[in-house]
Amino acid sequence: MTGLALIEAAAARLDGHARVTPLLNAPLLDAVAGRRIFVKAECLQLTGSFKFRGGWSAISALDDSTRARGVMAFSSGNHAQGVALAARRHGIPAVILMPSDAPKVKIANTRAYGAEVILYDRATEDRDAIGARLTQQRGLTLVKPYDDPQVIAGQGTTGLEIASQAREAGITRATVITCCGGGGLTAGIALALEPAGCFDVRPAEPAGFDDVARSLATGQIQRNAAATGSLCDAILTPSPGAITFPILNRLCGPGLVVTDDEALKAMAVAFAHLRIVLEPGGAVALAAALFRDDLPDTVICTASGGNVDPETFRMALAAGP
Amino acid sequence: MTGLALIEAAAARLDGHARVTPLLNAPLLDAVAGRRIFVKAECLQLTGSFKFRGGWSAISALDDSTRARGVMAFSSGNHAQGVALAARRHGIPAVILMPSDAPKVKIANTRAYGAEVILYDRATEDRDAIGARLTQQRGLTLVKPYDDPQVIAGQGTTGLEIASQAREAGITRATVITCCGGGGLTAGIALALEPAGCFDVRPAEPAGFDDVARSLATGQIQRNAAATGSLCDAILTPSPGAITFPILNRLCGPGLVVTDDEALKAMAVAFAHLRIVLEPGGAVALAAALFRDDLPDTVICTASGGNVDPETFRMALAAGP
């Protein structure tokens, strides 16, 4: 159901629509880190995160009449924006259910991409019930944020690019650290890199929200105790998915965990040495590469998103590199 | 002495050493600007500015024995870093004369790239005399910041990439706005784009330091009244060069002028919509594209550098998009 063939088919559909993002590095970053670090800058992807890939992949895989009725997504922000722009560029309606406490910039941008945004209260309202009613009433197709083979395939195109760019950079062996929420990006990259046989894939998560690390350690899906409480809003999913976890369990690990302060410091390092803007959840992989010890000489990190409020970015600049 | 052949030869020498930077765009940037804007993100170049291209081009063009004795540069920062890293990667010494009031991050980075940095006081010391003594004593070759055919050729490789990337993006006609100091980047890009016949090249400068705009308007080299007094430190050169000006005069104009506040706002726009870090001098072209009116539907801007202190970046975030 998932695999390299699906990822390659997604890559063909994304060609000319998604951006091939650069694999960045910097001598001064390597000096700070004490190892070679390469950063797959998905913050430079359309809509500012890798989520455009999965959104485009899922929408472009629908049959014409289903697609024409439109799509729906649940998202705190990056998946929302990715699906919204992919829908607009397919000329179809998108309805996005967003928690009312999602970052302001993500809500505003999702609307600016032309989606109908419906806000709900995480504490008192049932997102799934609202979503089910809307999909039924309007004939919308739900584009899940990660537990969908075509979404995983879309995110996996990031991995195809990493393989090709690593080869061009002369990298023969590396650990690839991913920013991991529900595991769509991580599973897709792991599947895409599997044939090369020279990459270990390790998910990074915020402390307190290390469901994937604990799931990998126990071999069983574990859940987070809380749904909020980290700056890394983009990757605070409750648990790995029924489709993503078996892939992660077969191909990835062990998980890496970083604090919010380390994520902020990684944002400051990316500002100073790579001149890219990262959001906290998009900086956890770089934070792990900078601040965890059990890593090899060459590390490739996903910088998975850069949709961040100025206030949070000021916190990162204050945290210093 | 300068021309397309020299630029193509420089491109061959830079291949595999400099980065091919992406040509970025964003639907929400276009919505804010009211026109299509593409940004050539040279802030993502090695050392954080296009200056690495010219440094590499000049050093790689020297004969072996001259090169082995080392190079010297005068620079407030970006040329310093470009020459420093290009020298280190050629395995040769670099001495960089920097004004003591240059941005701290640029001085620190130039040292971190392995150069010997000598600071001088702009007000009381004679940079040229210090430089002449050192080049003579040590047999160093001076790499000028812009008025050198091989430096112009190196910067011109940016233009070759713009031509190719514009073609891929389906752009058939555009105004290319450059961040312009002494005119090395602008002259190089104009020469590289001349054969295509579908690009106008217009230099952008900070208000009060519009020597190039006035020189183009009068057909004679004009000088700035002051040497400091703008946030755009990277492009505060006294006048266009003896080699660059005839090229600019033949191929470019009219010049565009933006305020420091507009440059800060452009940095905030680039932060929000492109997720790249720009310094004020690297944002003047985008500022012109955002805030000047006499421009066509499609504009390509150089984002020429991203070496900025956190304090200045905080000012940009506060200035708002």
Notes on the structure:
Chain A is an alpha/beta fold and 321 residues long. The first copy, chain A, is 46% helix and 15% strand. Chain A folds into two domains: 4-50 and 149-319, Rossmann fold (3-Layer(aba) Sandwich), CATH 3.40.50.1100; 52-142, Rossmann fold, CATH 3.40.50.1100. The first copy, chain A, contains 14 helices and ten strands. In chain A, the strands form two sheets. Chain A has a six-stranded mixed β-sheet, with helices on both faces. Chain A is globular and about 55 Å long. Chain A binds chain B through residues 19, 21-22, 24, 26-28, 31, 41, 43-44, 46, 48, 85, 105, 109, 112-113, 268, 271-272, 274-278, 306-307, 310, 313-314, 317-318, 320, and chain B through 19, 21-22, 24, 26-28, 31, 41, 43-44, 46, 48, 85, 105, 109, 112-113, 268, 271-272, 274-278, 306-307, 310, 313-314, 317-318, 320.
CATH top level of the largest domain in chain A is Alpha Beta
**What percentage of the residues of chain A does DSSP assign to strands (E)?**
5-15%
Please report the distance between the alpha carbons of the first and last residues of chain A.
Answer: 42 Å
Biggest sheet strand line-up of chain A: 1-2-10-7-8-9
Number of strands of chain A: 10
Write the element-wise H/E pattern of chain A from the N-terminal end onward: HEHEHHEHEHEHEHEHEHHEHHEH
Assembly type: homodimer
Low-pLDDT stretches of chain A: none
Helical stretch tally of chain A: 14
Number of domains of chain A: 2
The name of the CATH topology of the largest domain in chain A is Rossmann fold
How much helicity do the residues of chain A have? 40-55%
